[in-house]
Q: What sequence folds into this?
């Protein structure tokens, strides 16, 4: 705890707040009991004092901080807004502060500047309930703040907090001229899983800003917008950039249209591993039994891990649900133990585990094997809301391995919240 306060006070170092800044730093030591006094500092005419008060409220970080931080969202100063947004998101997602925009903020004659992380996957668990007034406050910043950095930060937080009611606001964010607002709105829509927004995103798959174009391509794939297939095909045919072409292929492969079956089969012989992977996943999602032998032959001759994972996905989707050594499903589970490939293998397993026969094969793998593999499979059951695994998870919540026990308890909470 002492180390925490040391770090916190370094963040709170005054930038001209003078005596008020010192008083605010001292108040942090009092915890929640200091919140009424800190609320008074939010009315101070000095923006620097109000910034210090928001920092202190965020550090205290109890439920009693939520109301004053929500109040601070209405502050006219953009730095106060940005820091209040990060404080609110950090309450619900404690690790949020590691990559918070506020940690990079700088104030100059032109206002404030800061840098968002390149990409993040931070999002609350489904069982976490966010106060409606927090979501509404973030919506108000996105829609009405006079600062685009604050608006973009509000969009980012709405995605992390699963603010589904804000989807119309995020769609409007796509129509702005600001790249950060557009990008953060795309990622937020993606995290929320707002399929209804998909048709309003397709036009951005041709955006001149490559970062936005890539995010839009990825989003229409994740949202399952099969109507976007012709647009993605045109991007593939007209854009020579490898990164864009790979993104388009990956998104297309997420949209199972039998009319593209021959196209996906042709990709299996491409020299590029990402292209071969897209072909394997595309065939797997179409789930035509006639393609099983085609994928089996490709599996036998493949050397690249990325493509092997996609081929394994395709084979399991087409019925290879056995878990013996060397089987496709066993290969996917084994790669959960790899830092390099866990982020690829687990989403594929989550998608496959929506099939009852795959879940039946995976249940025994929660009980034995490598710790990371067990934890990964347990997390898969939570993400798909597999009620048939509840009794196993109840037992594993008392496992001697604390990582396994924690993962089982979390997955069990998710499953129960979805009933």
A:
């Amino acid at each position: 705890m002492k180390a925490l306060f040391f770090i916190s006070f370094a963040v709170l170092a005054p930038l001209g707040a003078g005596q008020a800044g010192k008083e605010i730093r001292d108040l942090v030591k009092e915890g929640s009991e200091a919140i009424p006094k800190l609320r008074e500092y939010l009315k101070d005419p000095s923006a620097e004092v109000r910034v210090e008060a928001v920092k202190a409220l965020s550090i205290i970080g109890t439920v009693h901080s939520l109301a004053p931080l929500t109040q601070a969202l209405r502050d006219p100063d953009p730095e106060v807004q940005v820091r209040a947004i990060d404080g609110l998101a950090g309450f619900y997602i404690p690790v949020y502060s590691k990559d918070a925009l506020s940690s990079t903020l700088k104030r100059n004659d032109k206002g404030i500047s800061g840098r968002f992380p390149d990409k993040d996957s931070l999002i609350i668990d489904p069982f976490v309930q966010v106060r409606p007034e927090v979501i509404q406050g973030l919506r108000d910043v996105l829609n009405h703040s006079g600062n685009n950095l604050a608006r973009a930060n509000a969009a980012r937080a709405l995605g992390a907090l699963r603010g589904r009611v804000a989807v119309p606001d995020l769609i409007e964010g796509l129509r702005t001229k600001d790249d950060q607002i557009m990008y953060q709105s795309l990622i937020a829509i993606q995290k929320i899983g707002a399929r209804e927004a998909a048709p309003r995103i397709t036009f951005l798959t041709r955006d001149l800003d490559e970062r936005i174009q890539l995010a839009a391509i990825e989003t229409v794939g994740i949202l399952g917008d099969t109507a976007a297939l012709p647009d993605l095909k045109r991007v593939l045919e007209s854009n020579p950039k490898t990164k864009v072409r790979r993104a388009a292929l990956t998104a297309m492969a997420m949209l199972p249209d039998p009319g593209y079956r021959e196209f996906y089969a042709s990709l299996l012989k491409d020299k590029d591993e990402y292209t071969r992977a897209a072909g394997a996943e595309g065939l797997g999602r179409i789930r035509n039994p006639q393609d099983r032998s085609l994928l089996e032959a490709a599996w036998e001759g493949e050397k690249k891990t990325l493509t092997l994972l996609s081929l394994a996905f395709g084979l399991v989707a087409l019925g290879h649900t056995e878990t013996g050594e060397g089987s496709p499903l066993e290969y996917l589970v084994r790669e959960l133990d790899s830092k390099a490939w866990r982020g690829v293998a687990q989403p594929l397993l989550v998608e496959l585990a929506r099939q009852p026969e795959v879940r039946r094969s995976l249940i025994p793998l929660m009980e034995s094997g490598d710790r990371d593999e067990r934890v990964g499979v347990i997390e898969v059951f939570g993400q798909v809301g597999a009620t048939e695994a509840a009794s196993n998870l109840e037992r594993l919540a008392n496992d001697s391995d604390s990582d396994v026990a924690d993962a089982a308890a979390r997955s069990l909470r998710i499953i129960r919240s979805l009933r």
Confidence is low (pLDDT under 50) at residues 1-16. The two ends are 38 Å apart (CA to CA). The chain has 23 helices and two strands.
